[in-house]
Amino acid sequence: MTQALPNIVSSLYERFGHLPGVTIEVHKELVAINIINDVASGTIFLQGAQVTHYERHCEPPILWLSDACDYKAGVPLRGGIPVCWPWFANLSHNPDDVKVQIDALDTPKGAHGLVRSINWTVEDIVPQDNETHLCLMLLPHEEIPEWPYQATLKLMITIGAELTVKLEVHNTGERSFVHTCALHSYFSVGDIEQTSITGLEDATYIDALKEWASFQQHGTLSINEEVDRIYQLNSVTSEKYQRVAQIHDTSNNRVINLHQIDAKSLVVWNPWIEKSKQLSNFPNESYQEMICLETANTLTHMRKVTPGGLELMGFMVK
Ligand SMILES: O=P(O)(O)OC[C@H]1O[C@@H](O)[C@H](O)[C@@H](O)[C@@H]1O
């Protein structure tokens, strides 16, 4: 972060004024925007445009955030909704076009791309009684010296009775580029052993724990061991949100409904016992209280963005 934290906070207040239900806070080395309106509350960090909290009043939080986050600049927070772009997962598991494009760059090639630990700028905050809209923006060619393609990334978030998060990728340059991406949502559940997922019946998935082989889902998905799967949802369109999965969070007596638009992949991940011990900023027992359902376009759903082209994908939680 080049600007001192208090300066970032004061310049945001100067730009937007003191908007109702909007406060800007510093968490150690990071700046966050807190939202509260008549129906819900939320928190969005500038680093990674990472939504870390969403809760409807009088209900348990919908998103999970680790208690072990250290709020350090350059380290993505464990939980909430990290934005993965321009590649998802390890580069080695991406389509050849993505690998070739990224291999040519002199940039770190860790999992989940380049933008989850960079500060995004705040484009807009619009508070209303029942929903608050935010837009965060990133110009990757300006923030990542090695990224050679001109583009504008926008993350559009609505905090209301529903949570919507949309990622827009606009090619503003003269060369095409490809990407895979994900909104890597960590959902909070009361007890993973009393949690099941419906909506994926009969869907095809790639199992990252079984040598990336392809399988078909039969019936409800219960989580009682490590799960790391990429479901391919070919029927999702760019026309309207489509209900893709439901998390039955039985111990909280609720169902979280996930709808997607123009996002044809859904990653389901829980690290379970052994993998939990290897993850950064992840308490050993936390696998019991979270499940990732990650709205994505990956593998065969890689996207090519031609000059002037604009890609939009996202999800809504009802
Ligand atoms: O530790 P990271 O880089 O945030 O990744 C967490 C997980 O992210 C998921 O999307 C992947 O499917 C998992 O394989 C991975 O372990």
Which tags fit this structure?
318 residues, mainly beta, Beta-galactosidase, Chain A, domain 5, 8-stranded antiparallel beta sheet, binds 6-O-phosphono-beta-D-glucopyranose, G6P_1-epimerase
Summarize the entry for a quick read.
This is Putative glucose-6-phosphate 1-epimerase. It holds the Pfam family Aldose_epim. The chain is 9% helix and 41% strand.
Description:
By secondary structure, this protein is mainly beta. The protein has one domain: Beta-galactosidase, Chain A, domain 5 (Distorted Sandwich), CATH 2.70.98. It contains four helices and 23 strands. It has helices at about 5-15, 95-105, 140-145, 270-275, and strands spanning about 20-25, 30-35, 40-45, 50-55, 85, 120-125, 130-140, 150-160, 165-170, 175-180, 180-185, 185-190, 195-200, 205, 215, 220, 225-230, 240-250, 255-260, 265-270, 290-295, 305, 310-315. Strand 2 (about 30-35) and strand 3 form a beta hairpin. The longest helix is centred in the first third of the chain and has 12 residues, at about 5-15. It binds 6-O-phosphono-beta-D-glucopyranose. 6-O-phosphono-beta-D-glucopyranose binds near residues 89, 112, 184, 208 and 228. 6-O-phosphono-beta-D-glucopyranose (BG6) binds near residues 269 and 294.
**What is the makeup of the main sheet?**
9 strands, antiparallel
Topology pattern, helix = H, strand = E: HEEEEEHEEHEEEEEEEEEEEEEHEEE
Look up the CATH topology: Beta-galactosidase, Chain A, domain 5
- The best one-word shape is globular
Helix content: under 10%
Radius of gyration: 19 Å
How many individual helices? 4
Mean pLDDT, to the nearest integer, reads 97
Give the strand order of the largest sheet, numbering strands 1, 2, ... along the chain. Answer: 6-7-8-9-23-19-18-13-16
How many strand segments? 23
Which CATH-level-2 architecture? Distorted Sandwich
Query: How would you classify the helix and strand content by structural class?
Result: mainly beta
Q: How many discrete structural domains? A: 1
Percentage of residues in DSSP E strands: 35-45%
Query: How widely separated are the two ends?
Result: 35 Å
Active site: 184, 294
GO molecular function, one term: glucose-6-phosphate 1-epimerase activity
Family: Belongs to the glucose-6-phosphate 1-epimerase family.
Protein name: Putative glucose-6-phosphate 1-epimerase
